[in-house]
User: Fold this.
Amino acid sequence: METTITLQILRYIPEKDPDPFYQEYEVPIREEWVILDALNYIKDHIDGTLSYRWSCRMGVCGSCGMMVNEKPILTCETFLEKYMPGPVRIAPLNYFGVIRDLVVETDGFMEKVKRVKPWIIRDREKAPSEGEYLQTPEQLSEYKQYSMCINCMLCYSACPVVGLEPEFIGPAAIALAQRYNYDNRDEGENQRNDVLLADDGIYECTLVGECSEVCPKKVDPAGAIQRYKVQGATEWWTSVLLPFGKK
Amino acid sequence: MARYGPNEHDVLIVGGGGAGLRAAIAVAETNPKLSIAVVSKVYPMRSHTVSAEGGAAAVIKPDDSLDDHAYDTISGGDWLCDQDAVEAFVKEAPEEMIRLEHWGCPWSREENGSIAVRPFGGMKNKRTWFAADKTGFHMLHSMFQTTLKYDPIDRYDEYFVTSLLVDDGRCQGVVALELATGKIEPIAAKSVILCTGGCGKVFPFTTNANIKTGDGMAIAYRAGVPLKDMEFVQYHPTGLPFTGILITEAARAEGGRLLNKDGYRYLQDYDLGIPEDKPVLRSMELGPRDRLSQAFEKEKEKGRTLNGPYGEFVHLDIRHLGKEVIDEKIPFVRELCRKYENIDPVHEMIPVRPVVHYIMGGIHTDINGETLLDGLFAAGETACVSINGANRLGSNSLTELLVFGARAGRVAAEYASSQTSFGSRLEALATDEKKRIEKTFFNSSGNRSERVADLRKEMHNAMEQGAGIYRTETSLKSSGEILGELRERFKKISLEDKSYTFNTQFVSAMELSYMFDVAESIIESALQRTESRGSHQRTDFPERDDQNFLKHSLSYKTEQGSARVEYQPVTITRWPPGERKYGR
Ligand SMILES: Cc1cc2nc3c(=O)[nH]c(=O)nc-3n(C[C@H](O)[C@H](O)[C@H](O)COP(=O)(O)OP(=O)(O)OC[C@H]3O[C@@H](n4cnc5c(N)ncnc54)[C@H](O)[C@@H]3O)c2cc1C
Ligand code: SF4
Ligand code: FES
Assistant:
């Protein structure tokens, strides 16, 4: 007989459900299945009304984050077997509004990403005919880690500050700001400081470090925040207080 | 899900992948006064460009030349590429790649800080730029983040396009459904660029993401625009057996070897050169993808592949590269093997088999992305210019997104500026479309019993069996018949989900209907091309036939169901058709 496992999935269709509720599904266990395969099995064979996002099934598009047994994870990267013998609880990502079932509101996050001006800012831009900006492997490694973010939003679901202060700009956006700040091609740090040092900015962070724990791509937003608090901010204060100082 | 602007624009781009975003920036830079909309069924940074791994080709080093890049591309494409397009492509590629560098793409570098390049299959010189082995990811995120600084670019995120608005013989926008609310509405625009990506999901075993269902191709085809060279489907030789996850060609470029069940480098038996310790360009493991995938099939016939729970496979061995090189050059390969196959390629061999990866064909466009319908343009994998001919070379596609995304953007911007008014029927057309959708998918009356998942599975089987690496008249005809039956059954499709809020079952049903059109076009074009060229191999017609088929096929939708196929000559400028030589 095939081994099975029970998934308890938080369901919510706004047109008909007054409140979210857990629905149980029993699915087969296969060694090579990730959680997402089990959801697809449900959708194809048991209940076609279950809604969730996914696309790449290789841990890089950032669509498939969910709370599984209270922890934010990428469901396409996590084997089902790990949760034997079950049951497994699957819910939408914490601290985001729910559109339906496992699908959460993403626009707020997108706005935070935009707010940190995540593009190269320079006084003078080179024309393509002038060739590339030089960047040594060491200079690349300064920011490389922060450029690995797939915008999966798991870190927001793990962050207690986001839970309390939804306006908090949050771990991934801060790491993204740092990704550009530490890029030797960029000169936009001051503009980003205006955002990071605002009320809903970096000083809301109490350095819990959960964000880095759950990040599937080892971006280490907590490290980015720490580094900012120690080094970035002093530089900024110096520049404001001593306009004729070193920079 | 949100929309950031009024429903009327100058240029509307469907698709927020590499091609769509490049086009959007090109429009903004051509004329900052134009209003631009990017409509996408997923948030742009989730687009499939994100999973491209190996790299993007452009001549940058002094020991390389544009002519070499052109020749590699043309011979790799088995002379089905339009050579004027290839010449424009290789010429504009370096500047496009530098632009991306200026936008912050974290390209891998040489010690002195200049761009690093790696070898790639079918390329005579090293010219593939890379960002470790997450090239597409970095390109897409750099470009997406750059678009955020352009105010004229509005986005319609998570809007699913169902059809084009065509009035007065001119494309003037699209009809789209907002996933979050189920609202179906017209979005008008003076020109439209389709950048909707490929259609790998027509097949069961593919590297392609769930969203790659050929939507744009079907939407154009339904509007009377022909699809070009659809019989050319690329199999990548190295996919992981159960998931179809891609192990990038970069693994072979760095020195990875393909071994059969006896540990023998079997490619040497297929006119691909002699095995050397170090990787040799245009030889053995660095031969073109069509030839490598075909060699696998031959090994399988000879009983020299290994047998696993998910079919036959061979081994890709990268152990000799050592942990350091693997972690530095192809870390994602290691991450994927560990996560999905539970093996560490530093110590173990990787099981691989050919997997559907890319479609050379697509919406017929000219060198500027213009289609045969006024006001409609296309770029990226969904379009066929054609620079890929009968077989695309790895790392040409990402660059193609930039070069032809930018070209389409510029021309669509000019076209939009020359248009002054909209047709009078747009609202009425959108209302008709809304009724059609309601009736087909949300109406529960009548005898409806067919399920999306079942029909999709049967289509997958038919495509794999009839239109795979090797094809025959019999296999294609029988798949064509099955497809016809499935289409009939689709008329009785029944959705369990009648909600208007984020109804993913509705999306799957629409995608399935798109895939039927794409599949039909693939099968009919393959049936009528009675020769073997590049990725299209007919066992009943094993030779290339330049006399009759040095031509592009153009398939048109007909009332009866199966496509009508016409032909158009290939443009030859400086490289007359010759023999494809690898490893010698
Ligand atoms: C695993 C993998 C690795 C690859 N590696 C390489 C590589 O190393 N080098 C290389 O050159 N090429 C590579 N390729 C090929 C290359 O990545 C693709 O051809 C290319 O990224 C396609 O880009 P695109 O912009 O055309 O489409 P996509 O990035 O697929 O974007 C399509 C867009 O269209 C939108 N869309 C589609 N349908 C609709 C609809 N109905 N309504 C609204 N929006 C819609 C989607 O939301 C999406 O935004 C790889 C491909 C795969 C699968
Ligand atoms: S920082 Fe990590 S957890 Fe947060 S969004 Fe980026 S990849 Fe996801
Ligand atoms: S489906 Fe893309 S990250 Fe999981």
